[in-house]
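[Automated response] Your request has been received and processed.

Submitted sequence:
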Amino acid sequence: MGKRVALVLAGCGVFDGSEIHEASAALVHLSRGGAEVKIFAPNIEQRDVVNHLKGSPAEERRNVLVESARLARGDIQDLAELKASEFDAVIFPGGFGVAKNLCSWAVDGKNCTVNEHVRSTLQAFHNAKKPIGLCCISPVLAAKVFPGCEVTVGQDKNVDGRFPDAETASAIAELGCKHICKNVNESHVDKANKIVTTCAFMCKAPLHEIFDGIGTMVQEVLKLA
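Generated structure:
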């Protein structure tokens, strides 16, 4: 019987929501792994809306759940309805929406606050000793909620210009967590906390390498489930 996995989205679009390629990659690998997936998102207003063609702010308001429904093909539920007891694991794709909508990292960095339903979801899976998968910027959620955990967002130095956001690793360390340097096609497993992370688009890499890295994260999550 396939594992039951909850996928939590943060909107639709890299600059103000979930990174679409990451969400799709997670769904493809979960499908290949025989998992039964349900998709969730918080029913809240986005912090901002970005015109992805121009790369500039748009003067409009959007709802995270409504926008996430685009990625979920309409089959989605309010994150407030997610019950950890009904699932074997939870996965969070990345994208700026994680740092804007699921928490305030984009504005406050390591001093950020985490959305109450996101925090309670993470804590519920952790308390039940069920695996949590996070990619791209999403590992900062674990770093904020679980001091002392181990995560990766790639490298802690901008190696060959491929890791422009390497300072995120330092902020994670300042939160009392251990950052593990990994390549884009790898993931890190914190066995004690059952947290699996991979850097995805935190690295400037070909799409297939990002896809493969997310695949290793999903595979490790399913092994732990």
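Summary generated for your ticket: The two ends are 12 Å apart (CA to CA). The chain has one domain: 4-224.
If you did not submit this request, please reply to this message.
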